[in-house]
Design brief:
single chain, 396 residues, eight-stranded mixed β-sheet
Length: 396
């Protein structure tokens, strides 16, 4: 079977979506399917590149930096994504007949490209939906529900759903959301996934090694945007600034990166290091040297989110320390498996209390570390995701 994977960013980009789709591509390749990954890369000095990687055909198109700090530029890049990818690669894509298209969202702007491909071969489309955009924009008060741009986003969202044969959402609560809001028959639960094996011979750079030497490391890796509310983590850092044995390490990019960087500088945080996104191998090396994995979600969000970064933390046996929006039930998952501690954004006292449980109690840190990896193996294995997608179209 020929499979085309659409994802806005791919390796060596370290964001969780890129890593998840890489592992899914490898898993399908192991099952003797022919896999092509179509993605973007703003650092290319040409329109596109095409190459083989571990038996996977990879096509990358330069359409600009998709996580541009400017919301206006980012919106333009995403809205025109399908058209510009099609223009750059149509000679390649029209020569192949794909049996399955696996599309990763965010972004929601794949519909133009998918529509063209379906018109050629009426291909089965499985949408991996990880972000309830644009609904969270209203929840987080980024945009008014009366704004015409919001209605345009809703239109593009519905168009993508209509083109999809099957849609996998990441939690039971997300499934409930669609029961109430959109035609429900296409939707099913597809948990986030990863390959539990850690990479060997990981080497950390001298810069990071010097920053975290003799420290207990609380790491955050991923998007730095409105939905993540990284200022929430800075509040925790401030409340723990007297503890000289810990360091907060924030790695990523996004619309709020410069704002967060400025807050750190302005308040002279001695226990926080912020750094732009790094190559995946170096990020893995940092996780291997870290002790606690941080998650933060904007308190105004009304939807459930199981952040992909959580799986990367679990892969390296990091207990989860999270502060999330109310109504998000992933706290039950973490607490039921004793894989860390979760509080609600705005409750700084409990966030600090939970952090100290892990920082001051070595036995608790060891126990939750072990349970974190066990939870990953039990529920979030890449083989389970590949099986679910395959079963949805009755293939082996």
């Amino acid at each position: 079977m020929k499979i085309l994977i659409l994802v806005d960013r791919y390796k060596p980009n370290p964001i969780s979506g890129a890593r998840m789709m890489e592992e899914l591509a490898i898993e399908f390749t192991k099952r003797k399917h022919k896999v092509t990954v179509l993605s973007t890369d703003h650092v290319l000095n040409q329109k596109y590149v095409r190459f083989k990687d571990d038996g996977i055909e990879v096509i990358k198109v330069n359409i600009g930096k998709i996580n541009n700090p400017s919301k206006i530029i980012r919106t333009f890049i995403e809205v025109t994504l399908s058209y510009r990818i099609w223009v750059a690669t149509k000679k390649i894509l029209t020569k192949k007949k794909y049996d399955l298209i696996i599309c990763y969202s965010p972004t929601i702007f794949w519909s133009g490209l998918i529509s063209r491909l379906k018109s050629l071969h009426n291909t089965y489309v499985y949408l991996v939906l990880r972000d309830l955009f644009p609904h969270w924009l209203v929840d987080a008060k980024v945009i008014s529900k009366f704004n015409p741009i919001y209605y345009y986003f809703l239109y593009m969202e519905k168009k993508l759903y209509n083109l999809s044969s099957r849609i996998g959402v990441q939690s039971p609560k997300n499934l409930d959301f669609f029961k109430k809001n959109i035609e429900f028959s296409k939707f099913e639960i597809l948990y986030n996934w990863t390959k539990p094996e850690i990479k060997k011979s990981l080497k950390i750079s001298k810069y990071f090694e010097n920053q975290i030497k003799n420290k207990l490391v609380l790491v955050y890796g991923g998007n730095i945007g409105v939905a993540q509310d990284i200022s929430n983590i800075l509040n925790l850092a401030k409340n723990l600034e007297k503890n000289k044995k810990i360091i907060f390490l924030i790695i990523g990019d996004g619309t709020e990166y410069e704002k967060i960087k400025l807050i750190i500088k302005k308040n002279n945080f001695k226990n926080v290091i912020i750094h732009p996104s790094i190559l995946n191998m170096e990020y893995q090396a940092i996780l291997n040297k870290s002790d606690i994995g941080l998650i933060s979600l904007n308190k105004n969000l009304r939807t459930e989110n199981l952040p992909g970064k959580m799986l990367e933390y679990m892969k390296y046996s990091l207990p989860i320390l999270a502060s999330i929006n109310k109504g998000n039930n992933f706290d039950k998952l973490i607490h039921e498996h004793s894989a860390g501690f979760v509080s609600f954004n705005g409750d700084d006292k409990t966030f600090k209390k939970n952090a100290l449980k892990l920082i001051n109690d070595k036995l608790m840190l060891k126990k939750t570390s072990k349970n974190s990896k066990n939870l990953l193996n039990k529920i979030f294995h890449v083989k389970s995701a590949a099986d679910r997608i395959s079963e949805s179209m009755k293939i082996k």
